[in-house]
Amino acid sequence: MAMITTPHINAEENAFGKTVLMPGDPLRSKFIAENFLQDARLVNNVRGIQGYTGTYKGTKISVMASGMGMPTIGIYSYELFNIFGVDNIMRIGSTGSINPDVKVRDIVIGMGACTNSNYGSQFGLAGTFAPIASYPLMKEAIAQSETLGARYHVGNILSSDTFYSDNKTANEGWQKMGVLCIEMEAAALYMNAARAGKNALAILTVSDSLVTGEETTAEERQNSFTQMMEIALNTAVALEK
Ligand code: HPA
Questions:
Q1: How many structural domains does the chain have?
Q2: Which residues lie with the beta carbon below 6 Å from any ligand 1 atom?
Q3: Domain residues for 75?
């Protein structure tokens, strides 16, 4: 079996399924492989980023961490899409709400991803390109959210370069424009998918509210995480039907 070695992934050429789920955290990747996939095996461990491939309801699916922030998800999604033949990447992560109706433990499906990052300038559109989710993935994820009876929102999100911003009023502009929540990866993923002609979606659970200051306990995060996982996995299975 031919191995492909990039600066960031060292795996067999067909190591990954058509769909890769990407949590930020490598330990989450391991947890998902161990608890949701059958016959999961470690296919990449460069920098401990932990990529696994197994099956879910008979469909070959992979899970690999993205790390935090647009540069890291930019690297991994580029290599998965353009070198390892992956067609669909679903980010599964946490987010901070900036909308009073978006409560902790809710799920947010990122229809569009605004950003304060310069990542998009490489495409020659001076950062004005609107990064959006792939409609087939989003449509299926909404259907799966309905089936599971999840409390979910679909809308615009903000992919930010900063978790700790020195600008304490920065969120107001995004709030005025109806942006639901803040995370740190989706916009780069959506742009890479657009450039590669592939599919991407961010499914997020709200871990904290920047409106009310409310935070989730570890146990609550685990429960809403499980719901997000089921949405993502069932979406992956439905895509291959
Ligand atoms: N900002 C950015 N990313 C996040 C947050 C936040 O408040 N909460 C969870 N991920």
A1: 1
A2: 94-96, 160, 163, 182-184, 207-208, 210
A3: 3-239
